[in-house]
Structure formats: structure tokens, C-alpha cells
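Hi R.,

Here's the chain you asked about this morning:
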Amino acid sequence: MPSTLKFSRFVCYFLASLFLTACEEGSGELEVTLKQGTNMSLAVSPGQQEMVIDLQGTLWLLPIEGGLATPLTDPLLDAHEPCWSPDGETIAFHAYIDHNYQICLINKNGSDLRQLTSGPFDHREATFHPLGSSIVFSSDQNGNYDVFEMDIVNREVAAITRSPVNEYYPTYDPAGERIYYVSDDPDARGLHWLEVSSGVTGNLVELEDNIYAPSVAPDSDKLVFSAFDGDTVSQYLCDIGSGRLSLLKNSEDIFPFRVSWIDEKNFFYTADGLIKEYDINDDATKYLAFEAPVQLDRSIYERKYHHFDDTRSTAPLGILGPVLSPDGRSIAFTALGDLYIHSIEGNRTTKLTDDPAIDIDPDWSPEGNSLAFVSDRKGKMDLWLRHLDSSSAEQITDEDETVGFPCWNPDGSRIAFFLRDPRNVWGYAILHIIDMETREITPIPGSYFVPGKPGWSADGKKIAFMALHAASSRYREGISQIFLVDVNDHTRRQWSPQAHRTMAMRNFNGPAWSRDGRSMVYIQDGVLWSIGVSPGGEPDGAPQQLTDYMAASPSWGNQDQDLLFIATDHLKKLDLSTGEAITITPDLNYRRQGGAKEYIVHAGRVFTGTSDKYLFDQDIYIVDNRITKITPHQEPHGIEVIDASSYTVIPGLFESHSHSHAAVGEKLGRIWLGYGITSVREPGTDPYDALERKEAWTSGRRQGPREFFTGGLTDGSRIFYGLANSVVSQEHLEMELLRAKKLNYDLIKTYVRLPDPMQRQIIEAAHEMGIPASSHEIYPAAKFNMDATEHTSGTSRRGYSPKQTNLRRMYGDVIDILAASGMFITPTIGLQGPFFDFVAEHNDILEHSPYVKFYSTYYRDHLKAIVTTRPSTWHHSRNLMEIVYKISQAGGKITAGTDVPFVPFGLSLHVELQLYEQAGLSPFQVLQTATTNAAESLGVENDLGSIQPGKLADFVVIDGDPLAQVKDAMNVVMTVKDGIVYRIEDLLKAP
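And the predicted structure, written out as C-alpha cells:
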């Protein structure tokens, strides 16, 4: 967008009273004054002349009477939950430093920043001792959260609690004699206390709600805390002597932080986006106004060129799951939906399968004469066997769940694999073993979150694979560890090659167990490593780095001499005996599928995407993949005419937040097109998996939409999902950015544990490549020109969202930053409950023909059970819809997306759009979130998002009037993508 238009938008926004000041016309710099805070905390100084507030990750000093706030910390610190020293000169807080939260001190004038804690653990929620000599805080360094105390002078740390359950939010009483804290003890969940001198502990309050931040009054006979029961936030006054609770408030959106006492009956707290002062005796509340100016950089950068019209032959980069044969001479892999074998010595590539199904996860039998693989050729992902001597394929399993990652045992008698819920292949999986003679399947007890491909020990007694180990039960993030499972007694243990460090995206990245059982290889920090192991899989020796360049998907061959892996954009085979690595290039190419030579769609109504009015009785001319002109209808034409005179034509829809996986199968592309979705944005996926999908859809090998993708979720030292990519070093970051360039990413997504300085570097690198960057963050992301943010809430390393509260509300700080910056937001509100509330209220949507046809009875029965048994959360859903309305009214840019697969592909986007309409957006505004806005967010608005001459022929023929009611957009008659016509009756049939 030209800078003059941006400047005009900002001027209009200023006139709408959002107090924006553009610094220098065309510079991209502007200032926004925040007057509200979402999940902000505060602390009043001992002298009660000032307070410090934590607003969007920055600490601000504010006069006690309110007014202009002064920043104390750099926004890159991500500083939170301040506490004053007793002398009023120093502030303690936790900040995100070196990939973890650390306790820090800073002078009240912003000078002399000191870091008190360090290491690979999170330290949070600091409170000064009343004498100022020590600090008490919570930390997960014992494997769960416990309370610790640090002597500030000598930095000695001692554990105050040592419980197998989480204990956190500690605070002293004014005399320093007791510490009060929250305990998750299932037998006494609530507030506990500890006598400092004796170590005696006790229970003060038992409550099943989520309890937050106790704060003791100056007279030490009462304290205040808040609690959230899932529906309401309540603020309680507790009499310490009796434990009796008095409800103070339960009608406000109270934030989950300590109140700050002024005297025995008055305290400050934060709620409803505001700073409030409360008088307990009079039950009176006063409000404190503040202003906090923040700077944003919204500089314009040149967008990359998309080769939408290119028909040249291209080598595919989406090589998925490559495995080296036992003799080291051949490679089996998936590309363009089919299985291939490449002979290394003969440099010859042979296609093994040739059908519309997707065939993935090949694994060689020990003799090398057959391949186990996964295919949906019978409509769902099952285990198949390909006999290489006879070229026949045999179905091995017939399961309701989705099969993944088959792996032969050393003698070829059994195959291990995972079964995953087809509703969410990103979820938990259970290990199974099939006896290849009897075909008996045995489940191995235990459920693992998004595990990677398994491997067998040389004696066939153990199975190793990568899965998540959470750092604590309080928060979900942790590291990927190697799990060892005994196939006979089902015992298991787990270990890490390097303490406190996670390995790569789980998927195919190891551990690959050598055939002699003496070593494993895996990917960490972007490169290939090996480690010696005992016959039982225990670590035996230090890890050894094998490459100094990026590697992925390692596999063994040739009696543990050779290793095959993906080296960014090509295959390599490494000879461990000589250290020589050779590049392998399969003879395989694809080209863009061309559209029809020329045809016309005669449309009764055309919604162009740029106007809230239809064009009536129009002819849309298409040549190959482009719209050449749009004119009033006339007869005859002399070329093919598709009669849509009784229908409405709208631009092809975008799903702007999808995460997929090859295991969803061939039908995924048909689902998208069947719901009128011609473009899909994937902000987080295994890049090779996404490329296989993109190339198969582009070539027409499978039917499907346009794919706009990135790599894994670029994360920090801790991760959660299997496709999260832990990046902690500059070297690894540079390799990831090089991969983004070589694989031609369409965007880069940073995730929740990535430090802000690294995020800033990624934003700059992405813009140099001409592609947008996105994250879950709002600030300082907007300060450094982040293009988009995902979710109104979304996971946060803080334990709470800086964008949305427990009651699903968003306040002026977030809305002002979004509207002023022009950042796009994909709210994904349906995922937080409204999808299920909507479907429960409109259950006929589950009988909609495409949903019934595309989804199995197993899938539909499970979803129906969830919808019918789940209690209504419409009270929260309405708050979420109000967020969308407020953002839209403020001028924010909304893109529609759903975070599938957590809700059904395709169907969920239409529910999301109908939720926006219920929120108060006009049908025109709603449709723009899935058309023009979405195209602009990806930088493809010159080619997509609207129906105009010169643009790509991506549009949908609808039976209905979506400008009157958005739900009519579900009634797809025909979808056109890249000029290719897909009729709904054909899409509903498996090819």
C-alpha cells in the first residue's frame, strides 16, 4: 500500500480519537498513546507517591494520581509483575532473558538493570522480604514449580517448598514471618502458608478454582486474592486467623495479579482494562487514568514475486520421509503424492505408485524386498505393504484411527506404528505393534503427544522415538526427549542427548537407531548429530556433531556406514567411514497444471470483493488461469459458456490459519475446494510436508487449493508441538533463514518462547525476502514491523495472554495497536468455544452434504458427541465476538482462519464467518476477511482476493445471496481455482 494511503488512514484514525501521532510522513514511524491495558499488573511504591505498571511487556513509572507514564525497561525484555523494595528505590520483576524468565532488579529511575537468576529454568513472581534482604519467587527448576528464596547480596538460593505438585505465587506477610503461596495439591488445592523460622506449613484456603496472586494487608490479618472458575473471576478477602472468605467482587474482569495495598482498607488493582482503587469498608471504587505512549515502525517493504503463471518444469522440493535401503543403494520417498525409489548408483528414479491417493511414510523391510507405507487409497490412512518383486500392494490394517510412521523390526516379523485420532493428527498417539504373520495388532500402553517416527533396537526388544516431556505440569511447554519403550513389559524411560535442550521437529528427525544398535542419529540445532548408546538404548558417550549445515530426516543404510538426510533443498548421503558426502538428485519434475484455453462464466450476480453491491448478469472471461474481462452478458459468444446465471459468484475464499499434515490424506484438497476455499495459509508446518502438498496441488496430481506456507513454528528453548522448531543460537537462526529462502517460504511464523530480539531479527530477514512475518505477539512485535498476529488469545509464555483476558475480553491497548499499525489479526475465535456453541445451536450444519460426504462416520459421531454433551459457553463466546466487532470498528484488519485441525477443515471457516456476522460485521465486511484482507496479508492482492480483470481465476459459484446472509457461502455449486473448474458433485466423490 502506498505510504500516502497509510498516512491518510492514520490521520483518519487520529480524528476518531485514538490519539495517534505520525512522526515523519512516509517514514513508517508513528506513536500510539495507550490508555487501557489488557492483563496489566501494578505495584504501588512504599512511599505511595508513584506506582509501576506492567503494560505490554514494559514496566512504566506512573505518578500515584495517574497521568503520563514513563517507560523503565526496554520492550525487548518482556518484563512483568513488578514488586517494590521496602525502601522504594528498587523494583523486582521477571523478564524473558536467554530463552527463560529470570528475576531482575532495576532502579526506579530505570538505571542499573541486574539479573539475579540464570539458567535453563523459568523464575517468576518475585516478592521482596519486608527487610529488603531477600526475594521469594517461584521456579520450575525442580521439575515442577516450587517456591524459592534468594539472598540478594550473595545470590544464594534455597528451596522453600519441595512438593511434587506446583506451588507458586509466593508473598510475605508484612513481618516477614510467613510466606503465603498457591498450591495445586489435589488433596488441598488452594492457598497454603509456611512459617519461615520453623518450616511448618498449613492450609489457609481450599478452593478448586484457579487461584491467583495472594497479597497480605499491612495489618497482617487479612489478604486478598482472585480466583477463576472458568466462567467468573472473583476477588476474595480472606481473614487469615479463621480462613473465612468474603466475596469482594465477581462482576469485573479482574486481572490475575497481586493487589497493591495502600493501608489496611484500601488497595489498587487492575481490571476491565483500568487501574482501580478500592475501599473495602465503603465498597467504593475509583479509577486512575494514565497515558503510555508507544512507538511503532510500519515501514513498507517490497513484496516477493509469486510465479503464479509459470509453467516451466521444476524439480520438487517436497521430498517427504526419504529412507535409505538396507544395502545403501536405493532411496524410497514420497513426492507429489506417490512413492518413488531412486537408485543411487544407476541414478534412476522409478515411480512405485501412480494414483490419486497419497502414499507416505515408506520403510524398508530388513531384506530390502518390500516397503511398508501408509496410504488412503481405501479412503483412510492405513498400513500397506508393497512387494517390490511382484509390484503388488497389500492392505495390512483397517483401523478407524489414522496410521502413521510404520517401522520394521530387525528380523522383519513385526512392524511398529502409531495410531492417531483422525480428528486431530496433531494430537496424542498410541504405539502399536503388528505381527506380520498373524496380523494381530497389540497396543503398547501410553499416550504420547505428537511423537516422531519410531526405531527398533538391534535385538528387537526396545523401541525409541521422540516425544514431548513438559518442563512442569503448570505450563505445557517442554522439550522433545528420546523415549524408550520395552515391547515386552511396556516399561519406559526417557532421556536427552543434551540436558535441557530439545531436538528438532519430531516428525522424521530421529532418533534413527543404527542397525547394530550402538548409536542413534538425530537433528538438533538444525544439524545432524550422533550419540553412542547401549544395546538397551541408554546414552553411552557424548554427542558428536556430523554436519555443519542444515539436515533433516536422517536414516541408516549399508550396515551403519551410510546416512541419508535432507540438506535444506536436496538429498545427501554421508559415508561415515570416509566423511564423504554426495548429493543425490532424483530425476523428477512437475509443472503447473494449466487451465482451459478459454471459457466464460455467465454469472447472475458477481460479488467482486471490493464493493458491497453486486454486478448483475455478467460474463466473466477466463483464459488459462486469468480473468481477462468482465462484461454485461451477451449471446452468442462462440466459446464455451458455463451457465451460472441462477447463482452468485464470489472470490475464492482464504483459510488464513491452517495446520495440516500429509496424514490427513488426499481428501483434504477436495474438502478445501468443496467449501469454496481456493487458498490456504499455513503458519506452521514441516516445510517438506507442506511443499509436497503445495506441489501436488499445483501440478494437479491431487485436487486442492493454493498453498501459502512456512516452516516449523520458530520457537525458543522450550517447545510443545511436534513441528515446533527450537532455535537458540545465531548459527541455527541463520540456517533457518537460509532454508526459508531456498525453499521459497511465503511467510515466517515465530512462536511463543522465541525471545523478542530474535523475533526482531526474523522480521527484518523476512522483509528482506519480501515475505510477511507473524506471531502470537502484539508488542513489541508491532514496534518492529510485524505484519500479523494470530488468535485473539493464543498460547503465551507468560501463562496468560497479553491480548485477551480470562473472560475473553480485549482492551484499548491491543485494539489501538492493531488499528494504528495495520497489523492483520486472525482471531480464530471459533476454536475457543464459539464453534461448538454455534454448531450445538445450529445442529443442521452437521447434516450439510459436504460435511457428511467428506468426513467419516467415526469422525462425525465423535464431533456430535462433543457438541451435544459440552456445556454452553455462549457468555464467553459473545465476548469473543465483541472483540472481533471492536477491532473491525476501530479499523483493524481481520483475516478469517480457524486453527484447523482442532476444528473440522472447511466447515469451521464457514462457522467462523457466520460468527463474525453475529458479532455485528456486515456480510460485506465478513466476506472481506476471507478474500481481500487475506490476500493483502500475504502480499498477493494484485493477483488474488477479488474478481477483477487481470487477476487469477479463483472464484466460487454459490447458490444463494451471501451479501444478504453469509451462511449462503456454504452452498458451493462450483469452485474455480487457477482457471480449473471443480464441480461440487465431482469433489464429493473420492477419485
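Confidence is low (pLDDT under 50) at residues 1-26.

Let me know if you need anything else.
M.
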